[in-house]
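Q: I'm building a small set of examples for a reading group on sequence design. Run inverse folding on the following structure and report the sequence directly after it, with nothing in between.
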């Protein structure tokens, strides 16, 4: 069942979104050569707790950290580790959720560590833009397929592929709600978008093939061809005035 939120609930979701976004901003500022991903997770954890919020991911289905940190060919769900030291040229996807006032915010961004290759930067740019293409398509009266096809069209035109095995989702009192929000689809198909719906749009875009596999740690999901992958996400409310991003730092 898709849960519609009242305007008061949307206000509360903005607060949870703000905390998530600020945590993500802090995490991004910490990305630099020589830093290990466990340090970044610690910064995220401390900030979210200082706000009186709870990290949405910590303990979720047993996930052991507050942030998912996925480097280079890791698509999503990377587990932060002391032994993973960032290097110049890495691309670092950080996914963070915060639970506050009864609601979750969920957002992700892929950061460049120092100078990255032209190819890596192009993938980051295309994935980020595809997120905003998806958001622009999230108009009341449109359907989920309009969002997914907007993302898909944008990235496939640039030679990239859309991960199929993981998708966006409704977000609210639960971290993952209905409907699912694929980053591919057919215009005019799927669940109709209504004011009060809140969805996390999160393109996961690969430089090579779209197929992925999960490593033996049970979480880290990597591209099967070892090529780079990027991930950008915002939690978005559908309103009668159009889509509103809930995960903004201010
Ligand atoms: Mg999400």
């Amino acid at each position: 069942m898709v849960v519609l939120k009242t305007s008061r609930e949307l206000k509360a979701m903005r607060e949870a979104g703000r905390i998530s976004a600020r945590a993500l901003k802090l995490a991004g500022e910490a990305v630099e050569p020589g830093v290990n991903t466990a340090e970044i997770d610690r910064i995220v954890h401390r900030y979210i707790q200082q706000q009186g919020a709870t990290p949405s991911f910590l303990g979720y289905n047993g996930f052991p950290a507050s942030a998912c940190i996925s480097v280079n060919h890791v698509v999503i769900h990377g587990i932060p580790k002391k032994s993973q030291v960032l290097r110049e040229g890495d691309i670092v996807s950080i996914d963070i959720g915060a639970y506050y006032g009864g609601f979750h915010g969920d957002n992700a961004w892929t950061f460049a560590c120092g100078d990255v290759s032209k190819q890596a930067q192009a993938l980051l740019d295309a994935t980020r833009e595809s997120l905003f293409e998806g958001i622009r398509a999230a108009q009341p009266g449109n359907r989920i397929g309009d969002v997914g096809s907007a993302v898909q069209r944008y990235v496939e035109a640039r030679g990239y592929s859309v991960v199929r095995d993981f998708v966006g989702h409704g977000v609210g009192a639960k971290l993952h709600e209905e409907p699912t929000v694929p980053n591919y689809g057919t215009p005019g198909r799927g669940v109709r978008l209504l004011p009060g719906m809140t969805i996390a749009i999160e393109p996961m875009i690969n430089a090579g093939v779209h197929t992925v596999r999960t490593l033996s740690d049970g979480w880290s999901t990597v591209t099967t061809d070892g090529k780079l992958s990027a991930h950008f996400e915002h939690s978005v409310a559908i309103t009668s005035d159009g889509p509103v991003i809930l995960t903004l730092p201010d």
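The helical segments are 7-30, 37-50, 118-136, 144-156.
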